[in-house]
C-alpha cells in the first residue's frame, strides 16, 4: 500500500523554522530600575507570562541604582520566586546613568539577543513576542518600537520616555563601543550609530502609557544633559 504524503505550504514550513529558531535563541531583558518597587513585580510577572506562553527562552537582568524605596529588596524576592536562572539582580551603589546601566547589564547577559526596556510599564511586555517575530521575519539586526507607525498609540506619554528595543547581542556590543553618551540620549545615539554602520532596523508599532507607580529616572539635570547630548550628537554625526 502506497504511503500518503501530506504536503506543507511554504508558509507553514517557514513558521516551523521560526519556532525552532526561537527556541534555540535566548533573550536577555535589561531592566534598569530606580524607585520601582511597585512596578517591578508586575513588569516581571508580565514578562515571564509573555515569554512562557510563547515558549521563548529568557532571562531578566535587573540593574538597580541604589533605589532608596527598597526596589532591590523586591528584586531579591523575585529572584527567589522565579529562580536565579531567570531573574538576575545586578545592582549598583548609585545612579550612574542609563547608558552605563545597559553596559553593566550586558556584562551579565547570556542571551544572544538583548531587549532593553523600562520597568515603569510605559511599554507593555505583550509586545515583546512581536519584536521577536519581526526580527525573524526580516533577519533584522535591531527592532525598535515606534508610536508613529501602524496601530501604535500614546496614552499619557511624553518625550522623556524611551523606546523598547531588541538587538543582536554582537550588534549592541559594537554600538556600545561607538557611543559616547551616558544618559538618556544614549538610546538615540545608538540608532544614529546603527544607521551609520548600515545595520538593518525593523519597526513594530506599539502603544505607550505613562508610568503606573514610582519615580522617573529622568531628573531636571538629566534633561539638561539630554539636550546637551543631542547637540553633541548632531555636531559629531
Quick description:
It is found in: Endoplasmic reticulum. By secondary structure, the protein is of the alpha/beta class. The protein has a single domain (24-148, 156-236), classed as Spore Coat Polysaccharide Biosynthesis Protein SpsA, Chain A.
Write up what this structure looks like.
Helix content is 43%, strand content 17%. The chain is an alpha/beta fold. α7 runs parallel beside α8. The chain has one domain: Spore Coat Polysaccharide Biosynthesis Protein SpsA, Chain A (Alpha-Beta Complex). The longest helix is centred in the C-terminal third of the chain and has 17 residues, at 220-236. The chain is globular, with a radius of gyration of 19 Å. Pathway: Protein modification; protein glycosylation. GO terms for molecular function: dolichyl-phosphate beta-D-mannosyltransferase activity. Its EC number is 2.4.1.83.
Distance between the termini: 70 Å
- SS class: alpha/beta
Please tally the helical runs, counting DSSP H or I stretches of 4 or more residues.
Answer: 8
Q: Which strands sit side by side, in order, in the main sheet?
A: 3-2-1-4-7-5-8
List how many beta strands DSSP finds. 9
Summed up, the domain count is 1
Amino acid at each position: 500500500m502506497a504511503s500518503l504524503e501530506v504536503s506543507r505550504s511554504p508558509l507553514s514550513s517557514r513558521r516551523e523554522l521560526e519556532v525552532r529558531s526561537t527556541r534555540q535563541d535566548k533573550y536577555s531583558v535589561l531592566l534598569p530600575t530606580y524607585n520601582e518597587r511597585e512596578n517591578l513585580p508586575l513588569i516581571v510577572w508580565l514578562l515571564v507570562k509573555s515569554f512562557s506562553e510563547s515558549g521563548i527562552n529568557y532571562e531578566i537582568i535587573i540593574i538597580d541604582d541604589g533605589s532608596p524605596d527598597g526596589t532591590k529588596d523586591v528584586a531579591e524576592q523575585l529572584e527567589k520566586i522565579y529562580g536565579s536562572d531567570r531573574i538576575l539582580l545586578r545592582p549598583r551603589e548609585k545612579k550612574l546613568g542609563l547608558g552605563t546601566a545597559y553596559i553593566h547589564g550586558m556584562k551579565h547577559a547570556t542571551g544572544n539577543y538583548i531587549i532593553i526596556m523600562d520597568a515603569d510599564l510605559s511599554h507593555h511586555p505583550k509586545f515583546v513576542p512581536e519584536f521577536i517575530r519581526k526580527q525573524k521575519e526580516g533577519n533584522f539586526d535591531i527592532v525598535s518600537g515606534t508610536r508613529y507607525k501602524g496601530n501604535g498609540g500614546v496614552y499619557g506619554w511624553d518625550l522623556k520616555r524611551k523606546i523598547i528595543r531588541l538587538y543582536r547581542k554582537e550588534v549592541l556590543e559594537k554600538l556600545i563601543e561607538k557611543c559616547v553618551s551616558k544618559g538618556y540620549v544614549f538610546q538615540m545615539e545608538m540608532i544614529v550609530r546603527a544607521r551609520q554602520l548600515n545595520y538593518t532596523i525593523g519597526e513594530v508599532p506599539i502603544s505607550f502609557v505613562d508610568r503606573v507607580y514610582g519615580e522617573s529616572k529622568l531628573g531636571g539635570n538629566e534633561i539638561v544633559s539630554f539636550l546637551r547630548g543631542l547637540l553633541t550628537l548632531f555636531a559629531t554625526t
